[in-house]
Give the backbone structure.
Amino acid sequence: MWQVTEEDLLSISIGAGILGTGGGGNPYIGMLRARETIRQYGPVTVLSADDLQDTDKIVCVGGIGAPTVGIEKVRGKQSYDALVALENHLNVKATALISNEIGGSNSLEPLIPAAISGLPVVDADGMGRAFPEFQMKTFFVYGVPYAPMAIADEKGNVAIIPKAITSKWVERIARSITIQMGSVACYALAPMTATQVRDTAVKDSLTLSKKLGESVRSANKTKSDPINAMLKVNPGKVLYEGKISGLQRKTTQGFARGEVTVDGSGDFAGTVMTIEFQNENLIARIENEVVCVVPDLISIVDSERGEPITTELLRYGFRITVIGFPSPDLWTTKEGLQVVGPSCFGYEVDYTPLVLT
């Protein structure tokens, strides 16, 4: 059990940006929102999954929409509004909150309604990274109900999805609502039990984000290598280094979709990498050879400072390092790959786990 400080928020935002594989919403904006809310309402306690009681009702909250819109149309307290709407709909009170994904600003989203309502946040999430679609949560893969869902915008609109036949249908309905809300909204989901969280969540992910961010900040302060520092905290592999030479990006169907081209430098000079993304980085190729693919993590960071660069902030000329991290084990099962494997994004390639050596 620990309390989130302002220093923690900055570290979490950096670490979550790395784990977010380019998506999850801009982590710096998420940090600013969480910081101001905590300053106004007070600190937030973080619980481990083992701290939960059998009687607890844990509500997952998160943001939904296109990151390209989210950097201009900054969220307010919509996640709190969604939480209240869900509680009123079910006539129950949440006793703790949990993040839908540890990526980007979504890692920090639960801290906002938690601070307002005085609830703790669980040190876990439903992805261990970020994914673009609602159904792509470990919770649902392993049997947690996906409805009802409350979704809210900044204008005061709230919608309830009381029932759906599959989690994919919740994604379709919620995405349509989000587009009408301006492609930025927040949601809250039916409460989970402590056992469900312990069995289906990616645990200790908030702590991992914090440690990753601390390693990068410390390395920059001491003028040491931030890439090596983060890899000591979370083992991974440098996939590529170079300069962005091309970028195609558009906001369509509620997502930021596109491809970034990188000209290699150093050990990768004379080669070209391409990375395709749908909010998150999905597949990386060097000279048309796949070097990393979902559900493994493909993270783009600034080569000098090691700070994450989300897909909506990619620009021509940036000097970047591309890092691969192994997927959480919950995604590499047969059940997990049926939801987030390469074929789920239209790629006709087999998933080959990232080899670190």
About this structure: The chain has a mean pLDDT of 95.
